[in-house]
Every structure is written in C-alpha cells, then in structure tokens.
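User: Fold both of these, please.

Assistant: Here is the first one.
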Amino acid sequence: MKTHGFEEVAHTADRAIKVWAEDFNSLLCQSARGMYGLMDITPDPTHQFIAKFTIIKSNRETVLVDFLNELLFRVEEKLAMYENFSFTKEVKGLQVTAYEYPIKAFQREIKAVTFHNLVIKDMDFGVMTTITFDV
C-alpha cells in the first residue's frame, strides 16, 4: 500500500472515498484531492493565488468535515479549487494556506461532506478513514 492516497468505494446512495496518509495533515490533503476527483474538476493552472482560511479547533473528524465543506463552499461560491496545502496550528484552530486555482469546469456536484460512519483510525503506517459525500 502506498503511504498516502485515496480510492472511491461503493456506497448505496451517495459517493464515498477511502483515504489514507502518513499523518493527519496529509490526510486532509488526500481527502481534498479525492473530493475534487469525485467532482471531476478541471482547474485553470495559468492563474494561481495564495489563499488562507482557518478551521475552528475541534476533534479530528470535525476538522476534516469542516475543512472539506469549506473547500466545497469555495467551489460553489468562488469557482475555485485548492492544492499544495500547508497547515499551522493556532489558538483558534488550524490555519490553512494553499494555492487557489480558478475552475474551468466540474462534472459532478457534491452537496455536502457528511459524518456518516466517519472515524479516523490510527494505523501502523499513519491514519485512514472513509468519507461519505451527499450528492
């Protein structure tokens, strides 16, 4: 198994991905890649901006859902996607810095990231979870 990655897994009504990584911050990055992959997003790589936002401090599952829902909100409101994330712990929460790219197109809509059966598991190689998306 690679040290990090994601794959779509079968789900009866919604869409889901299994995600694994060396640590929690890498899990956030892989989860974003997986969500964007499900949406089949086409970015415009010729325009790049630096973006910053904060995810309020909470348990790992809530931070993951809030992080992905923030990215989803920005897809819908700003037609923007993000990559090359860096994370800094602050008093209020997790400061996220990333490259922002305009979106040329996306093929599938995701309504929300859910807590359905969401548990982040510590493994020998790092962390793993399955994320379900409401479509």
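And the second sequence with its predicted structure:
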Amino acid sequence: MPDYGQETVRGRVTYRLLLSVHAALRSDLERVERLAAQALDGISAEELTRELDEIKRKGMLWRLKVDCLRYCRFVHSHHNAEDVGFFPELRATNPAIAPVIDRLEADHRKVSDLLDEVETVAKALADDDGDATRKAVADALHALREELLAHLEYEERRLEETVLRLPD
C-alpha cells in the first residue's frame, strides 16, 4: 500500500461516483453497439437518425460536449472536468501516479476525436444512405465503444487506490 494516507470517506464517495458515471456510460455504449449493428442490417436512414436522436436526448453518454452530439457533450464535459479539476488533485495526492494520468489525458484526446468522427459520419447519413456510409457509422461507433471501454477499465483499475485516499 502506498504511504500517502489511508482511505477517506471523501475518497470512497468519489470512487463510487466515478464508478456510477462509468456504469451509465457503459449502458449507453451497449445501446450504441446495438444501433451500429442495426445500421449494418439495413435499418432505414430515418429510423437510424431517430434512434441517434433518442440516444442524444436520453443517453448520458451523449450529453457531454459543446457543438457535438449530446452524448459527445457529456463525455467531453466529464473528461474536461477530470483533466482540469480531478487529475491535478490526484497528482498532488500521489505524485507517483503521473504516468497514469498522462495516459488518461491522452486517452481523452483520442476519445474526443472519435466522438467528433461519430458526429461527422452520423450527419453524412442525411445526404447518403448507402452501404458505405452505413458502414462508416457502424465503424465509428465500434471504434468509440472499444476505445472508451478500454479507457474506463484502465481508469477504474489504476486510479482506485489514489482516489480512495483523497483528503477529506
């Protein structure tokens, strides 16, 4: 166990909150994966757009970034809050965690690019409902899912010990 303190009430609450947000993100990603499969199976462009709009309205993941799909707005906001407010405190609590934080910040940039790609290909459906566009939507959704799931798992595993010891 590191020598930077004992678990705190604040640390346990913060870690539970992190896990709760990640659970909501995973739930939305499952829905996104189903939609990607439907895009390849020939769902109409109107229905695909309607489903994306539904995810944007109700899915936590789609509520994260300014000028992006709502899901993107949420992810971007969550990552920005971590980068600006959460990660500096973790670095101060446990300086040895710096390489982990560096990787997480790099992951945030990758996820941001993937969210932008989802937005771009989803908008392309309005002009082109062909197989290539549908495949681009499905591929973008798959790439986002894979990257974000790997990021969430890494973050939870590597930050737990430090987060649990955040000062009260």
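The chain has one domain: 9-161.
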